[in-house]
Write a structure and sequence with these properties.
With about 90 residues, this protein is an all-alpha fold. Helices cover about 90% and strands about 0% of the residues. The chain is built from two helices and no strands.
């Protein structure tokens, strides 16, 4: 395995991490933004008001996108292991 192969595996790992985490992070971001706007409009400044909805939305996103996330991670891992096996032989 050369340095180029190791860099390519690292690049793919970063890409898979970004694609896997993006749905949960984006939905949490949108939820936090909506709640912040709601708090600004109603002048309710309760700090715990943002945590519960974001936790619920994150859990629902993980349940909904879980199969996609798992398939991305297992596909990456199998490609990496197969690539390493071919590089050794």
């Amino acid at each position: 395995m050369s340095y180029g192969d190791a860099i390519e595996i690292g690049r793919q790992a970063i890409f898979v991490t970004l694609v896997t985490a993006a749905p949960v992070l984006l939905l949490s971001l949108v939820t936090g933004l909506v709640i912040s706007i709601f708090q600004a409009v109603t002048q309710i400044q309760e700090p715990t008001l943002t945590f519960i909805p974001k936790i619920i939305v994150s859990a629902m996103a993980i349940l909904f996108f879980g199969p996609f996330m798992l398939s991305m991670l297992t596909d990456f891992l199998s490609r990496t292991i197969i690539g390493m096996a071919h590089a050794i032989h």
